[in-house]
Amino acid sequence: MRVLITGVDGYLGWTLSIHLAARGHEVAGIDHYGRRAWVGEMGSQSAIPIAPMAERLSAYRERLDQNLRFFKGDLCDYDFVLDAYRAFRPEAIVYLGEMPSAPYSMRDVHTAIYTQSNNVLGTLVTLHAMREAVPECHLVKLGTMGEYGTPNVDIPEGWFELEYRGRKERMLFPRRAGSWYHQSKVHDSHNVEMACRLWNLRSTDIMQGVVYGTKIDEQEGHPLLATRFDFDQAFGTAINRFCAQAVIGMPLTPYGKGHQKRGFLPLRDSMQCLALAVENPPEAGDYRVFNQFEDVYDVMQLAERVQRIGNEFELGVKIQPMENPRSEAEQHYYNPDREHLLELGYRPTRDMDSELRSVFADLIPQRRRIEERREAQFPDIRWDGTRRRSRSLNR
Amino acid sequence: MRVLITGVDGYLGWTLSIHLAARGHEVAGIDHYGRRAWVGEMGSQSAIPIAPMAERLSAYRERLDQNLRFFKGDLCDYDFVLDAYRAFRPEAIVYLGEMPSAPYSMRDVHTAIYTQSNNVLGTLVTLHAMREAVPECHLVKLGTMGEYGTPNVDIPEGWFELEYRGRKERMLFPRRAGSWYHQSKVHDSHNVEMACRLWNLRSTDIMQGVVYGTKIDEQEGHPLLATRFDFDQAFGTAINRFCAQAVIGMPLTPYGKGHQKRGFLPLRDSMQCLALAVENPPEAGDYRVFNQFEDVYDVMQLAERVQRIGNEFELGVKIQPMENPRSEAEQHYYNPDREHLLELGYRPTRDMDSELRSVFADLIPQRRRIEERREAQFPDIRWDGTRRRSRSLNR
Question: What's the ipTM?
Fold first, then answer.
């Protein structure tokens, strides 16, 4: 299948381009190196060194024996996007080309505007370009479990049957996001659903949990096939950030009480799920939603898990909770469904410990790169709009 | 109270500036004359002549004995908006500064992007500027009943108690909008709710029905205090468009079967409701939603009503339904609540006939201006992305 990945230079995008090629798909990608720039803005860099795209593409060709057809440009530029779709004629588009950080979006008015502009308008451009050039194409759109927030009720997969005052209707489940970034994904979901309803497009909207891990098997340990690994306060996800902290001897810093519950999944399972979505498209006009995560953990449990595995590497890991810079519930009900991907054949890895060992094995050789950008790990972007470094809390 | 109106040069904004001044409020306004430009782009003009802002402001001062403090600029420009808020220190902001047309937003990819960019980012700028400069200020935000679409269940006012699998939660009622414009309002609602929740701002989000009418009493028939009246396919609302068609001897053109039901209210009642919202602010942190309309009608009933009143003016009015350029349900359940404004003291006018007589009295002298832009009334912007003039249908 011809699959186009937007955001192909990013953490998930690059890995997916390799995973899909290994599964026999023809892959193209779009990027404008936004992720490199945003992480740089945060005063950080990828712990794992990332070569320029030209070198990545050469290695891709050499190791995977096919070209990754790469288009460099901005997803908000309609003419560019339309041209790329017309040239490659994708059968599926995996849309990973969004600014993915909640703290970055909460930094100031300018990053808030940038986030919603880049994400919402980019998706809107893609819907129009699909209608124009590839109306049969399947849009696999990356959303986030954070769209739902943490309501005091179960969370279905996108849709539910609402019973209200004695009548019934199939409706989108209400969203309650907690950052401008998460809201941008809520807006995307509404826009994409409407495009399927009005224009007969087809889409799978992926409400993804928090991803962790450094690699998948198909990268074969080749440094030019490696994907990035961020550990700064904005672009590092929780488990990845904890691992990087452990490697440089910093205490792990869960926020607040640490009883925030989230769904998590390893990078390799994210790839497995996205490939399943690509290879099993919905009917024309169908907007379906997958909740994509493996298990629900609270953040303190994860810190303890990282501590235990880190200590196998004699890192002497400590946990030191920090004042929560976010506004979020720290004790809450959380029970999201996740049936759709299992029905398609998803087999969760279910072995976090060996995944964490693999992360440590990859990160320890990069200790110096993490040390160099040590300051970038301290959270100082606060949800109330102020900028102040979080204090340590007693555990 | 110091009230700032964004979009003060528009149909509702200008009228509200007069209504609030007459009620003793101090009024400021922001505009960049977008409405004039968009209507011009559609090949049309206001049926009622509108003077340049400088002349409007002079007349305002003369007749109402107070200044309207006017700031000319773009609501997406943070520095400009922040500066205006700091200068005027509004206690309430009535946010009418959005691109208000569904057909315009569906015209092409560029107007779709413009609509969501102007509306969503402008609101986002305002939320940030409020937090920075006037955190106690009350945001009266104009949404639309179209955010909800036409679900097969009752429509509460914004919030509802969801019962789901034996648990309960107060949540936003699910939205299902039918155009990029309506979606922009859905996105606004989500953004504004979050700003109230995270930043303790306060807002009333007005889900307004379709407004009709040419004037309010406080304009005293003064031509420089008059508000605009659009009749083109994009910016003319249904009843207003029917009245303009009747005046130039064109048949009234309800779309499709004409059994689309919507909530309607006259301009004077829209003013009454907005003033009630302004004068009764919610608590800090509160995001409340008002469904603002008078009665629900189906579009064919309204055409027949306009026909009857138009014939009192010997206009020989005919009705000739047209192919529906939109994708929308033409037969559907529709039962929205509207209690909140009644509880605050809203007294509906409830006399559509005399309102329509007043519209005809104002429009008949402008027959030539409507004739000049006759072509602008024929719908050719289609929801499927094509551009083709709707055909007439047998009734």
Answer: 0.98
CB-neighbour burial class of residue B35 (10 A; exposed 0-12, middle 13-18, buried 19+): buried
Measured distance CA(B106)–CA(B90) in Å, rounded: 34
A227 is catalytic: no
Q: Does B61 touch chain A (CB under 8 A)?
A: no
- No. of H helices and E strands in chain A? 14, 12
Q: How far from A326 is each of A116, A322, A354, A383, CA to CA, in Å?
A: 19, 11, 31, 5
Contact B194 A178 (CB under 8 A): yes
Res A192 pLDDT > 80: yes
φ, ψ for residue A97, nearest 5 deg = -90, 40
- Chain B residues with CB-CB distance to A173 below 8 A: 174
Backbone conformation region of residue B213, classed left if phi is above 0, alpha if psi is from -120 to 50, else beta? left
Do B192 and B203 meet the contact criterion of CB atoms below 8 Å apart? yes
d(CA A30, CA A74): 8
Residue A36 φ/ψ region, left for φ over 0, alpha for ψ in the -120 to 50 degree band, beta for the rest: alpha
Nearest to B353 by CA among B174, B155, B212, B144: B212
Residue B296: beta bridge partners? Answer: B263
Q: Quickly list DSSP for B360-376.
A: HHHHGGGHHHHHHTGGG
Residue among B164, B190, B327 whose CB faces A175 most closely? B190
Of B160, B165, B178, the CB nearest to A154: B165
Confidence of residue A394 (pLDDT cuts 50, 70, 90): confident
Best residue in B79, B113, B188 for a mutation probing chain A (most A CBs within 10 Å):
B113
CB contact at 8 A, B225 and B60: yes
Alpha-carbon dihedral A88, A93, A99, A100, rounded to 10 degrees: -150
Say if residue A328's pLDDT is above 80: yes
Cβ atoms of A8 and A30 closer than 8 Å: yes
- B155-180 mean pLDDT: 98
Q: Report the predicted TM-score, pTM, of the whole model to 2 decimal places.
A: 0.98
Cα–Cα distance between B29 and A183 in angstroms, integer?
29
Extract the tokens encoding B362.
């104002």
